[in-house]
Amino acid sequence: MAVAGRKAMGQVGFGLSLGLLMAPTIFFFYWMISLSLKTDVDNLAYPPVLLPRVLTLANYVYVFANSHLLRFAVNSLIVAVASTGLALVLGIPAGYGIARSRRYGTALLILVARITPALSYLIPWFILFQQLGLANTYLALILTHLIIGLPLVIWVMLGFFEGVPRELEDAALIDGCSRFGSFLRVAVPLTRPGIVVSGILAFIFSWNNFIFAVVLAGPRLQTLPVAVFSMMSFEQTNWGPLAAAALLITAPVLLLTLTFQRDIVAGLAAGGMKG
After folding, report:
1. Which residues, other chains included, contact 234 with Cβ-Cβ below 8 Å and sequence gap of 6+?
2. Which listed residue, 42, 158, 223, 253, has the most CB atoms within 10 A of its CB?
3. Residue 100: Cβ-neighbour burial (10 angstroms; 0-12, 13-18, 19+)
4. Which residue ranges in the chain fall short of pLDDT 70?
5. What is the pTM of this model?
6. CATH number of 59-271
């Protein structure tokens, strides 16, 4: 009984601690949902109205009717999917090559490229694209977003490939596989959780990126974060439509994360284990 009591107390304590840590995030999402469903009168009231007195979908109607949200969503989807796909195609073999050749100096350079502020190379990118006639094109956005996703994919996959025993690939070579064949048939299937995790992270970073689209994309190619920013002005901020648009942007990423939740957990757990 004493052991069961301590176990129950431990579970209660863990639940309370977890709830305390998650409280700011839960309140943040609740406040966004509340703002999107309240009228302007409630959103501007002081003191703040925590519970909507009148529920309305007018803010969502306003977003779809006045902000060309669907067009911006298509732009974001094209750029995020293309940049993530390229990051996986290039990053998975690169991570494998670095892991097997143990060129950790190269990996360090890739890490430096990843942590360098985007603003430091945004202007050179802009000048280059202007000279090449690529400004205000999907290709310019995809290439700049690739700078974000590719180092991330390489670093995640580097850790996963280091966890794949060389003996399995040596056995495949003995059975007649080429080096590329052993990579494709042995190493890649064993690192599937890492591929899923790195792909989702690269997609999220691309989907949420703001600064590249502001500078490199014109009105026709604006992405969703820029569309949300355009709802703010010096005169006023429409909190209801702003919260509605933010929730609509967050929804695809949230659904993607929930869909691949098991793969993400398995990938993070496997990435933290060696041997």
Report:
1. none
2. 223
3. middle
4. 1-6, 232-236, 266-275
5. 0.81
6. 1.10.3720.10
- pLDDT tens-place string over residues 23-46: 888 888 888 888 888 888 788 777
Q: Which residues on adjacent β-strands are paired with residue 232?
A: 237
Distances (CA, A) of 57 to 42, 116, 263: 14, 42, 35
